[in-house]
Amino acid sequence: GQNIDQPTEMTATEGAIVQINCTYQTSGFNGLFWYQQHAGEAPTFLSYNVLDGLEEKGRFSSFLSRSKGYSYLLLKELQMKDSASYLCAVRDSNYQLIWGAGTKLIIKP
Amino acid sequence: TAGITQAPTSQILAAGRSMTLRCTQDMRHNAMYWYRQDLGLGLRLIHYSNTAGTTGKGEVPDGYSVSRANTDDFPLTLASAVPSQTSVYFCASSGGEHTGELFFGEGSRLTVL
Question: Looking at the partner chain, which of B98, B100, B106 has a beta carbon nearest the beta carbon of A42?
């Protein structure tokens, strides 16, 4: 079966750095996505990786290793507004998105 | 720009009743999707449409139906609601079959009693 694993919850301190990991086992691979979802709101797109390596976008970076079935989202200079759930999703060989359950990130002052 | 609009935002429904969740987008996207989101689970695809006039079944289609008469509208119908359909429903669209970025509506919270 297809599976996306990410931690259920993480806690970090304002101003610090946090890394959210995602491992996947899917039927084929056509890209990995990270979305941010604030409580009670819709998910919004953060990043996309299809080749191995690091993609940087401001305070957020996303890394992919296809051989290891592994990705991480790195958030720097954490702000209180970064408190949200972070969803990892993989597009499989049928171009369907398989979603992880999400990681709830709690930022403490 | 409105993007994707869902209605209603919240609804309580008696079991056995029918319900249609409305979804309209103004981005002229070809592909549209309906997901349900339940606590502790990832988003699960109910139905999708790659272009107007076509629809397909996702991971959890049973008890739901969709139609895609035009590019903008993609309603989701529950013919006879059951309590297990209590969930938050998200409509989404993307610019093409192979485009990754999804744009989501604000969600419809449905409670079936």
Answer: B106
